[in-house]
Design brief:
Helices cover 22% and strands 32% of the residues. By secondary structure, it is an alpha+beta fold. Strand 17 (277-284) and strand 18 form a beta hairpin.
Length: 454
């Protein structure tokens, strides 16, 4: 194993690919070629995909027979939920969307009733057109033999291949569904950071069989009792009072999400007036300087969802406290901006802090698009950044809409307990889709001890 170059220990393990780093750090490994049996070279690159997550890219090439192969593996943990991405292909540009598929991704073209099963292909970075081309290649490779052994089947497949090839001409819109139980798939949004009107994303709770397929088992299933070490110490009733928890800052070691070094995370239970108790966590890495904060509700899911619209018309509105839970999505209609619930995570900040976080994430995660994208995409991102700057300078009035189906988000009122003219709060009944995403449809609250299925 040989590294192409040496980097300082403060460099993050997973780095963004940008024009400023034309020679990214790669690792070369001598490995066996499955085509000819000689030794070839595998290059491994750890990087981040903008608006997605960390991935491991692997590229194999054999100098003896010319065989090449590319593969992608998720660089982070398996997501808590699976993901289902439904894309409506209407234009040629939709065929050029980047797609990240893990090994556990199934692909279905609804109009043709055609499905590529999960684990039938290796994970890859490709495009929508590349997915169709790979399906065509897979069906064509055995056609010469089929025409000899089973001409009727070969003729049917030829007819189906014609339909697949017609998809690339976009004679009519068609729908592609990517479903990944590991949650590690992604379809590019060419309108980022604006909302994508042709993509619908649903996160779903895995069942036990799907967890087992990913190698996830509970302690009871594998017959191992949790070790009472570190955080996993059993707390007896009465060991800590509520007053003790309110006054205590707990500290534990976690890997830095930027460089992977062990660093300290502080956690504290605090009470937000006129709302509820929340858990605030802050991480500070002394090795690379990375800092992050996160907030989680310490209570239950509320009986109803909540939709809060706050008008931002002056600098005073910037000072409002905001609690955005990790299940809360954001929308700014004046900027045609929609931010999903998992983009910014859970935060306890101010209106100004929320806007700055949006801008910082756009600049940091969108660096690849700004550096290498076409002029139209670059112009759109820069225009959006300028509009955010105008908002932060109080030169443009906006409305921030927080939509949280779990009901665990909050915006400070300046006139509590009287109604605040700058706030609109609506509590609504959740839909079946909301409950599915929150894992409530399959939740069993009675006799759950005797039920093995989740």
């Amino acid at each position: 194993m040989e590294n192409t170059k040496s980097k300082a220990s403060t460099d993050p393990i997973f780095r963004n690919l940008t024009a400023d780093d034309p020679d990214p750090e790669t690792t070369e490994i001598e490995s066996l070629c499955v085509n000819c049996g000689e030794n070839g070279t595998t290059r491994v690159l750890l990087t981040k995909i903008p608006f997605y997550k960390e991935v491991v890219l692997m590229s194999f090439e054999c100098e003896h027979c010319g065989f090449k192969n590319n593969e992608i593996q998720p660089g982070g943990k398996v997501d808590e939920k699976g993901i289902r991405i439904t894309l409506t292909v209407e234009k040629e540009q939709d065929l050029n969307r980047q797609v990240v598929k893990s090994d556990y991704t199934s692909v279905r073209i609804v109009e043709l009733d055609f499905e590529i099963p999960a684990q039938s292909q290796r994970g890859e970075v490709t495009t929508v057109e590349g997915v169709i081309d790979r399906a065509i290649t897979g069906l064509e490779q055995d056609q010469p033999l089929r025409r000899i052994q089973d001409s009727a089947t070969a003729e049917q497949i030829d007819g189906f291949l014609t339909k697949l090839k017609r998809l690339k001409s976009i004679e009519s819109p068609f729908t592609v569904v990517f479903e990944d139980i590991s949650g590690n798939s992604f379809v590019e949004n060419p309108r980022a950071p604006q909302n994508d009107p042709r993509v619908d994303i649903v996160r779903f709770t895995r069942n036990k069989d799907q967890d087992h397929l990913l190698g996830i088992y509970s302690s009871n299933e594998i017959g191992v009792e949790p070790k009472e070490t570190g955080l996993l110490k059993k707390i007896e009733e009465g060991d800590f009072t509520l007053e003790d928890l309110h006054g205590e800052v707990l500290q534990f070691q976690t890997p830095c999400p930027n460089c992977g070094t062990e660093c300290s995370t502080n956690m504290k239970l605090t009470n937000i007036p006129h709302f509820k108790e929340v858990v605030i966590m802050a991480t500070n890495c002394e090795e690379c300087g990375h800092r992050s904060n996160e907030v989680k509700s310490s209570g239950c899911i509320e009986p109803k969802g909540i939709r809060i619209a706050v008008k931002v018309t002056s600098r005073d509105d910037f000072t409002r406290d905001v609690l955005k839970s990790e299940t809360c999505s954001l929308e700014i209609p004046e900027l045609d901006l929609t931010v999903g619930p998992f983009a910014l995570g859970g935060r306890f900040t101010t209106v100004e802090g929320l806007l700055v976080a949006m801008k910082d994430q756009l600049i940091s995660q969108g660096a690849m698009f700004v550096d290498s994208a076409d002029a139209e995409t670059k112009k759109r991102v820069l225009k959006f950044t300028a509009e955010l700057d105008a908002v932060l300078e109080a030169e443009k009035d906006i409305t921030i809409v927080l939509d949280d189906p779990a009901g665990n988000s909050y915006v400070q009122s300046f006139t509590e307990p009287e109604p605040d003219p700058g706030l609109s709060i609506i509590r609504y009944e959740r839909t079946h889709a909301h409950n599915e995403e929150l894992g409530l449809n399959d939740m069993k609250t009675e006799n759950y001890e005797t039920d093995d299925n989740r």
